[in-house]
């Protein structure tokens, strides 16, 4: 059978596609493995349950990647051990962190959404100037203000005050939530997509600005509320720097979980065999965040992409 | 139900952009007013100012008898239907309609009654439990109407409510909204860019362009007597044809010369309102004729056209062509020779055919080539008659009359001159007499065509004057322009003079309260302003009003010579203008000119004048804006 000379030869689209996909997936798998190794290592270490020949527990990292024995000893120790003279320190730190994160989550979400609503739907003098300033401030890392915040809180007795160490928790909540309003940009992007006509219509229907926010804007802003709540919750839950600075080294009872875990590795605790317990702590800390993200992922994506495309 | 009054409304944004300029209209109760114009003409901004969603920069807005400039939208008792419907997506139809009533703390049983009544009227009873997203565009639009309806407002505002609907639904909704207006007997203000909606729905239409009102009139008046070329082109589909032409009066006919050499002849009677100076065969004017007012003449009379396109719409055919007999090179550029003719019962015309178009002489329009204003306004702006100095007097329109000293002085050596007479300067009197050829209603006035040689003298006359009567009249000399030697030698006196000054305030304690007094400062005079004017200027310009200068419009009737000891503006008497029946003194007040009514024989060299402040208008000097 002779080839028709008039038919132009072309490259097979399906073949090109197969090759390109193979290359893409190979790169992604390699990157994925590199990215996952530390995580796998932490999880494996958390369940590591090895003993020396003399029967003593090996609490350190050994040269082998995969543990020779698995068990829950690290977890039971973590929850029952006394650290820094505080019995049940880890659950206490978890509770401290939860209280701080929940309160901050409520305050910050309200502040962020309120500021975003004002910036998006209200018109007032210096609005644009404020938005520009807030954007410029946002370009600097938050911990730049750490020393200033520390001294401000110290001046009102809200840092590691020896007579009232519990006040440092209030100080920490203040540090996390007071500046939250400046992070309004994403929520503003979401509110910008809500038509102004709805706001105007509500005005004609006799609503005040706050009522419009409460009855019209918020019910339409579920994804951004959830996104913002997640962000406000995970911030304190995972923060180390502010917690370390504001609560102070002497108030182990009021530490957050990240400060506590860190101290297991580099602290002044006499027992240096705590790495596997640290790993178990990391796994425990990750559980609430992972659970929240799993259930609220849909809203999170809607929230984070809000305003990107005019809908 | 309420009337509305918009008085000199302006909207100026912070960046200086003037969105609405000097918008004034009186809207009667139960009127259906349509604001129409292209994008960016300020129609929606005006509507939003009425709603209270935009602040009013200057001017007064009354709903009923209440000044509402500073009133919250919710308190204005208006309801608005938005282009996007603006239904609350998380609420059911019932909740959407009830929302405004609940905010007003209306009892729930009354809310239910109102919502159900409105739903029944709009045929959306079955959808009350649905969410807006579960409804079609037309149904959503009805819900939006229903939400306005339940409020039972004084005024309905509708902002392009049909523009999101398809053509068929739009036509149906148009009829429904018109019927709704009739049944509700409420004032409707409707914004659209669609001239078909405007023509079919409005009792009166406001045509706007670039923030300026072009014409406010009934649909048929807009169609038949457009004030300018923009209105003429905006109303009507396909739009009016325009051509550059010159006009030449030849006896009882006027010859229209097209730029390509074609001519058509119109009877003078049809264009008698055009001023003579446009009929000289040289002055360029714009000729306008609607496609439906052109006949295709079988006898090859009229304008020769080569057909470039034919649109057969079934009931009618639009024939597109070019003047002349050659298609030439194709270009999208309008070369001023394109023409559209709307014909009925003609399906034999093909592209490339030569046809002859004959405009209906009774339906022609002419516009000034520069200003684009009609040359055939309902009330002509002025008449021009020739006159001559004879003996001690003058001869005007063949009749002798006294020559006012002001005229004599202005004319100098000239003996032949022209009098430019506005129709309202022709007043009942005994100096002249002319036969009335016809009388017609123009706006709410009576326009008389007085026979005057080969042209008409237009005059505004009282009731009872009819065709065939001899009309006896005099002229208000101070309202006339005098042309002599090819130039204007004397300009009619304006009724208002403008003086520049500043604005100030003082604060005094009266019975324990701090009270502000505002003042206009003109030259060395400081006169107290009306408090409401003072507060208004302060509200518009803020505290910079005390640094700004303003133009004060002072009507002649408000100027008087100050009494002894009264605060006044010192002025030199520059000249006495004696118009015979009336006499005026021209004053120079520190470089600013103004006129004052005086008695004959007035001979003072210096006077102090003062003004009745309630009659003074205040204008911004920075932008052309009347503040109060």
Helix-strand layout with pairing:
The complex is a heterodimer of chains A (311) and B (628).
Chain A: H1 13-46, H2 73-80, E1 82-83, E2 86-87, H3 89-121, H4 127-138, H5 146-155, H6 167-178, H7 185-193, H8 196-204, H9 209-217, H10 222-238, H11 241-247, H12 257-266, H13 275-304
Helix pairs in contact in A: 1-13, 2-13, 3-6, 3-7, 3-10, 3-12, 5-11, 6-11, 8-9, 10-13, 12-13
Chain B: E1 4-12, E2 18-27, E3 32-36, H1 43-51, E4 58-63, E5 66-67, E6 78-81, H2 93-103, H3 108-122, H4 137-149, E7 155-159, H5 167-184, E8 187-192, H6 195-201, E9 204-209, E10 212-217, H7 219-224, H8 229-234, E11 241-250, E12 253-258, E13 263-267, E14 280-289, E15 294-296, E16 303-312, E17 317-323, E18 338-343, E19 354-359, E20 365-368, E21 383-390, E22 393-396, E23 399-402, H9 405-411, E24 416-421, E25 426-442, E26 445-452, E27 455-461, E28 470-475, E29 481-484, E30 487-490, E31 496-510, E32 513-522, E33 525-528, H10 531-541, E34 549-555, E35 559-561, E36 569-578, E37 583-589, E38 592-597, E39 606-611, E40 617-620, E41 625-626
Parallel strand pairs in B: 3-8, 3-9, 6-7, 7-8
Antiparallel strand pairs in B: 1-2, 1-4, 4-5, 9-10, 11-12, 11-14, 12-13, 14-20, 15-19, 16-17, 16-19, 17-18, 21-22, 21-24, 22-23, 24-29, 25-26, 25-28, 26-27, 29-30, 31-32, 31-34, 32-33, 34-40, 35-39, 36-37, 36-39, 37-38, 40-41
* Secondary-structure content class of chain A: mainly alpha
What fraction of the residues of chain B are assigned to beta strands by DSSP?
A: 35-45%
CATH-level-4 superfamily name of the largest domain in chain B: P-loop containing nucleotide triphosphate hydrolases
> Number of DSSP helices of chain A?
13
- The spatial strand order of the largest sheet of chain A comes to 1-2
Count of structural domains of chain B: 4
- Gap from first CA to last CA of chain B: 27 Å
CATH topology of the largest domain in chain A: MetI-like fold
Low-confidence segments of chain A, given as residue ranges, are 307-311
Return the average pLDDT of chain A rounded to an integer. 85
- The structural domain count of chain A equals 2
CATH level 4 superfamily of the largest domain in chain A: MetI-like
């Amino acid at each position: 059978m002779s080839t028709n000379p008039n038919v132009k030869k072309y490259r097979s689209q399906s073949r090109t596609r197969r090759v390109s996909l193979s290359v893409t997936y190979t790169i992604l798998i390699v990157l994925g493995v590199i990215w996952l190794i530390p995580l796998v290592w932490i999880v494996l270490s958390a369940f590591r349950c090895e003993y020396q020949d003399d029967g003593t527990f090996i609490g350190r990292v050994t040269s082998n990647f995969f543990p020779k024995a698995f068990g829950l000893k690290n977890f039971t120790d973590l929850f029952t051990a006394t650290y820094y003279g505080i019995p049940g320190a880890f659950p206490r730190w978890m509770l401290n962190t939860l209280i701080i994160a929940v309160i901050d989550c409520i305050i910050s979400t309200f502040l962020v959404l309120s500021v975003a609503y004002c910036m998006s739907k209200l018109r007032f003098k210096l609005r644009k100037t404020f938005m520009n300033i807030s954007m410029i401030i946002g370009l600097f890392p938050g911990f730049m203000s750490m020393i200033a915040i520390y001294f401000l809180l110290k001046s009102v007795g809200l840092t590691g005050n020896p007579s009232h160490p519990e006040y440092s928790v209030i100080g920490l909540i203040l540090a996390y939530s007071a500046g939250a309003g400046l992070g309004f940009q994403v929520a503003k992007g979401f509110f910008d997509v809500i038509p102004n006509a709805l706001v105007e219509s509500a005005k004609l229907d006799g609503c005040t600005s706050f009522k419009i926010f409460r009855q019209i804007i918020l019910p339409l802003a579920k994804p951004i509320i959830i996104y913002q709540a997640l962000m406000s919750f995970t911030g304190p839950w995972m923060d180390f720097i502010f917690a370390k600075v504001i609560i102070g080294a002497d108030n182990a009872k009021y530490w957050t979980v990240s400060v506590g875990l860190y101290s297991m590795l580099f602290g002044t605790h006499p027992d240096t065999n705590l790495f596997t317990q640290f790993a178990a702590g990391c796994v425990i800390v990750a559980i609430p965040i992972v659970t929240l993200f799993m259930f609220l992922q849909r809203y999170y994506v809607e929230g984070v992409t809000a305003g990107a495309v005019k809908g | 139900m309420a009337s509305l009054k918009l008085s000199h409304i302006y909207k100026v944004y912070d960046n200086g952009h003037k969105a609405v300029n000097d918008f004034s209209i009186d809207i009667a109760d139960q009127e259906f007013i349509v604001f129409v114009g292209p994008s960016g003409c300020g129609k929606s901004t005006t509507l939003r100012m009425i709603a209270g969603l935009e602040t009013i920069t200057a001017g007064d807005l009354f709903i009923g008898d209440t000044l509402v400039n500073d009133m919250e939208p919710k308190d204005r008792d208006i309801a608005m239907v938005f282009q996007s419907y603006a239904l609350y997506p998380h609420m059911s139809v019932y909740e959407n309609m009830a929302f405004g009533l609940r905010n007003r703390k209306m009892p729930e049983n009354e809310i239910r009654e109102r919502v159900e009544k409105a739903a029944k009227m709009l045929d959306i009873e079955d959808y009350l439990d649905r969410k807006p997203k579960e409804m079609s565009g037309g149904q959503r639009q009805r819900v939006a109407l229903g939400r306005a309806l339940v409020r039972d407002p004084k005024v309905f505002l509708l902002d392009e409510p049909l523009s999101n609907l398809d053509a068929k639904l739009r036509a149906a909704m148009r009829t429904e909204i018109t019927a709704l207006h009739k049944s509700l007997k409420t004032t409707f203000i409707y914004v659209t860019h669609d001239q078909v909606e405007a023509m079919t729905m409005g009792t009166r239409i406001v045509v706007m362009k670039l923030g300026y009102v072009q014409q406010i009139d009934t649909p048929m008046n807009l169609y038949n007597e457009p004030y300018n070329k923009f209105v003429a082109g905006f109303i009507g589909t396909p739009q009016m044809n325009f051509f550059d032409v010159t006009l030449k009066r030849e006896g009882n006919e006027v010859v229209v010369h097209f730029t390509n050499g074609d001519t058509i002849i119109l009877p003078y009677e049809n264009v008698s309102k055009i001023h003579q100076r446009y009929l000289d065969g040289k002055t360029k004017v714009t000729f306008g004729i609607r496609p439906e007012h052109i006949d295709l003449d079988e006898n090859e009379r009229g304008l020769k056209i080569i057909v470039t396109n034919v649109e057969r719409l079934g009931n009618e055919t639009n024939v597109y062509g070019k003047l002349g007999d050659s298609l030439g090179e194709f270009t999208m550029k309008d070369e001023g020779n394109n023409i559209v003719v709307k014909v009925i019962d003609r399906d034999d015309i093909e592209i490339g055919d030569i046809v002859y178009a004959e405009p209906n002489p009774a339906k022609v329009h002419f516009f000034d080539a520069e200003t684009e204003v009609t040359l055939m306004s309902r009330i002509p702006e002025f008449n021009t008659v020739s006159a001559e100095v004879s003996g001690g007097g003058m001869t005007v329109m063949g009749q002798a009359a006294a020559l006012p000293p002001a005229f004599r002085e202005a004319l100098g050596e000239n003996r032949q001159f022209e009098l430019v007479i506005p129709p309202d300067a022709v007043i009942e009197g005994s100096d002249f007499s002319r036969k009335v050829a016809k009388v017609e209603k123009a706006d709410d006035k009576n326009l008389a065509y007085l026979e005057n040689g080969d042209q008409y003298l237009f005059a505004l006359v009282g009731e009872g004057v009819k065709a065939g009567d001899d009309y006896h009249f005099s002229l208000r000399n101070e309202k006339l322009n005098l042309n002599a030697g090819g130039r204007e030698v004397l300009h009619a006196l304006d009724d208002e003079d403008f003086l520049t000054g500043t604005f100030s305030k003082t604060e005094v304690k009266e019975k324990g309260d701090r009270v502000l007094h505002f003042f206009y400062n003109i030259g060395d005079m400081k006169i107290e302003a009306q408090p409401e004017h003072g507060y208004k200027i302060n509200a518009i310009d803020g505290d910079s009003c005390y640094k700004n200068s303003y133009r004060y419009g002072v009507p002649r009737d408000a100027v008087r010579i100050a009494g002894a000891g009264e605060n006044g503006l010192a002025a030199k008497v520059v000249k006495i203008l004696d118009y015979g029946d009336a006499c005026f003194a021209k004053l120079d007040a520190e470089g600013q000119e103004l006129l004052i009514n005086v008695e004959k024989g007035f001979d003072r060299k210096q006077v102090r004048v003062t003004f009745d402040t309630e009659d003074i208008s205040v204008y911004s000097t920075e932008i052309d804006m009347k503040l109060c």
